[in-house]
Amino acid sequence: MTPAGPEDELDFTVRAVWREERVSCPHPNVLRAFLDDALPEGAQAFLRFHLQESQCPYCNAAVEEMQARDREAGKVHLEDLKDRLLRSTVSALRQAKK
Ligand SMILES: [Zn+2]
Questions:
Q1: CA 27 / ligand 1 centre spacing (Å)
Q2: SS (H, E, C) the chain
Q3: Ligand 1 centroid vs 40 CA: distance in angstroms?
Q4: Distance from the CA of 39 to the center of ligand 1, in angstroms?
Q5: CA 20 to ligand 1 center in whole angstroms
Q6: How far is the centre of ligand 1, averaged over its atoms, from the C-alpha of 77 (Å)?
Q7: Could you read off the pLDDT of 25-81 as tens digits, one per residue?
C-alpha cells in the first residue's frame, strides 16, 4: 500500500470541502417552504442569504424551477376555474329558463 502524497491529500481536502459546501445547501423541501414564506424568520433569512448573497447556483436553479412550475400550475388552475365558472353560469341560465 502506498501512502497518499501531499498532492493527493490536498485534492482530497478540496473535494471534501466542496462536497460539504453542497451538503450545506438546504433540502428542496426547505427551498419550497422558503418560497411559501413558511420558515421561521431565522431560516428565512439564511435562505435569502444563501440564494441572494452567496448566489448558490444549485439552489437558485432549483428555486427558479419551482417558480416556473408554480406559474404553470397557477395558469392551469385559473383556466380550470374559468371553465367551471362558465359551466355553472350556463347551467344557472338553463335553470332560470325552466
Ligand atoms: Zn445551495
A1: 9
A2: CCCCCHHHHHHHHHHHHHHHHHHCCCCHHHHHHHHCCCCCHHHHHHHHHHHHHCCCHHHHHHHHHHHHHHHHHHHHHHHHHHHHHHHHHHHHHHHHHC
A3: 18
A4: 16
A5: 11
A6: 30
A7: 888 999 999 999 999 999 999 999 999 998 999 999 999 999 999 898 888 777 888
The structure's pTM equals 0.56
Sequence spans of domains, the chain: 6-97
Q: Any idea which residue has 441572494 for its cell?
A: 52
Give Rg (Cα) of the chain: 25
